[in-house]
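TL;DR need structure tokens for one chain.
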Amino acid sequence: MQKGTLDMQMEGDRFLRFKRFFEAPPQLVFDCLTRAELVQKWLSGPPPMEMVECAIEPEVGGAFRYVWSGPNGEHRFGMQGIFKELSAPHRIVHTEIFDEDWTGGETLCTTSLLPQENGTLMDLLVEYSTAEARAGAMQTGMKDGMSQSYDKMDKILEIRAG
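>> reply
TL;DR here they are.
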């Protein structure tokens, strides 16, 4: 898989699988997914949104909370979840739910970080509560937003990998 390309596939009627290659070792990618000071730099949301709150307790049973806001505090929204499994640097399992629950219930996200020659393949499987919830999420343009955020993460990884 080529760096910078986010692959999205539907599986069954409630799952989406995302794959993306990063030119960095699994530990650096794991850190970018679990450390608040790094997450806040790359998970900014669609312009002109920015993350204004980022709290992460990277431990099993630990919570995370993200809040985004537009200019002047407009269009504020947030999401939260609980870590179900953390096996550094290869696996993260957590729940996610948006404050306004526009995705139709909690999702379960399983991220595997697979070592590859010259980097890491991230394999993210998202399980939605219903087929309708998955369909609704797909209509939001989430793939484009995720791609933009992961492009920002690439820049952080480049700096950290030095």
